[in-house]
Specification:
By secondary structure, the protein is of the alpha+beta class. The protein has helices at about 5-40, 140-145, 150-160, 220-230, 240-250, 285-290, 330-360, and strands spanning about 40-50, 50-60, 65-70, 75, 80-85, 90-95, 105-110, 115-125, 165-175, 180-185, 190-195, 200-205, 205, 210-215, 255-265, 270-275, 280-285, 295-300, 310, 310-320. Strand 1 (about 40-50) and strand 2 (about 50-60) form a beta hairpin.
Length: about 375
């Protein structure tokens, strides 16, 4: 190949690097957004005797986490008149300039001990039942805790209410009796309900009803199920033991475990785990918090509840973050940009060498 052709080829390579860098960075960002599906959120229900515990690691890229207490109250809905909603606490994120996640609950427990949390999955199309009822608020997850007391009522609620056309996850519920269910969507777009059939039920980021939907196998699922399988006596099923299991499957890095919580639906208490190896569990009594009426304020569009006129009474508390994440997507994008700069400079050096060689006198002996 002549020196001129080599120069043209090198110039073409440099151009390709420059043109492909934005596309590659965009793909990296998309992969980062999907990565929370593959390595985030471990949820469990564990039941032995009269002891029922429900827990979750909230693994996500945002840093500002909160608890929201919503006491039982009458609310005026836009299309369904007045509704009596049950009191509940919800957990989630806010003040991150992220409209898709801020103020939208990720989990919680109501005054009857009904608990829930969700695992992220790739979006699937959901076939709507034309005879179903519309929720009185766009935030159906909040409405389930406001309307239902137990898992049986949850299943009935899903079977008789409409949802949006796509569904990107599975929702894990448990109640005071130890009944638990994971609500997901099967390959035909129908709701499917995976019930607890042993002393524990674990869900991570693959569909329990269809393991090909999501990331399977999952080391967090395998670790948690193995550790729960080693608990055989009721006295061994403790908050401390469950905190150890949650620590064993916690995440660090970009989608770190921002908070770790355990709910005791029987006693209407919940715990937030902190410290080395989650050795400290801070206990909060739900009914006591819901009774602090003087500290509540009216919020008009809380949880995206645009279907409730005048909003709802809410009390907000900041959650201490366990593992801080800084500049999540920007870090990886910066590293990718640096890589492209290095590659481009390398090609430039190569081109310079060719040009310099071309300007030299070449002597060939035959």
């Amino acid at each position: 190949m002549s020196a001129t052709k080599k120069i043209y080829l090198s110039f073409l390579l440099i151009s390709c690097f420059i043109l492909l860098q934005p596309l590659y960075c965009q793909n990296m960002k998309a992969n980062q957004e999907y990565s929370h599906i593959t390595s985030s959120c471990t949820i469990f229900t564990a039941v032995i005797g009269d002891t029922v515990l429900f827990g979750n690691n909230e693994d996500y890229k945002l840093n500002n986490a909160y608890r929201w207490y919503v006491p039982a109250q009458n609310v005026s809905t836009t299309y369904f008149g007045y509704k009596e909603i049950y009191g509940a606490v919800f957990f989630g994120f806010d003040n991150n300039n992220n409209t898709d996640v801020d103020t939208w609950e990720q989990g919680g427990m109501n005054e009857f001990g009904l608990c829930f949390d969700g695992n992220g999955l790739p979006d699937v199309q959901l076939n709507l039942n034309p005879s179903s009822l519309y929720p009185y608020t766009p935030n159906a997850l909040a409405q389930v805790l406001w309307d239902c007391k137990n898992v049986s009522e949850v299943i009935n609620w899903y079977q008789n209410h409409k949802w949006s056309g796509t569904f990107g996850g599975q929702i894990h519920y448990a109640d005071t009796t130890g009944d638990a269910v994971v609500v997901s969507v099967n390959s035909t777009g129908q709701w499917i309900f995976t019930r607890i059939d042993s002393a524990f039920l674990v869900s991570t980021n693959f569909n329990l009803a269809d393991v090909n939907h999501g990331e399977h196998p999952c080391w967090r699922y395998d670790t948690a199920t193995q550790m729960f399988g080693e608990i055989n006596a009721e006295e061994d099923l403790t908050v401390s033991k469950c905190a150890n299991i949650l620590y064993a499957v916690h995440q660090e890095g970009m989608y770190a475990t921002k908070y770790s919580n355990i709910c005791d639906p029987v006693n209407l208490e919940f715990y937030f785990n902190s410290g080395d190896e989650f050795s400290v569990s801070t206990k909060i009594n739900l009914l006591e918090k819901l009774a602090e009426s003087e500290s509540y304020e009216q919020k008009n569009e809380f949880f995206g509840v645009t279907g409730i006129d005048g909003g709802v009474l809410v009390k907000t508390e900041k959650i201490d973050i366990q593992f801080e994440t800084s500049e999540n997507t920007e870090t990886e994008s910066t590293e990718t940009s640096i890589l492209f700069v290095i590659l481009s400079l390398s090609v430039c050096v190569f081109v310079y060498g060719l040009v310099k060689k071309r300007n030299q006198v070449n002597v060939t002996f035959y």
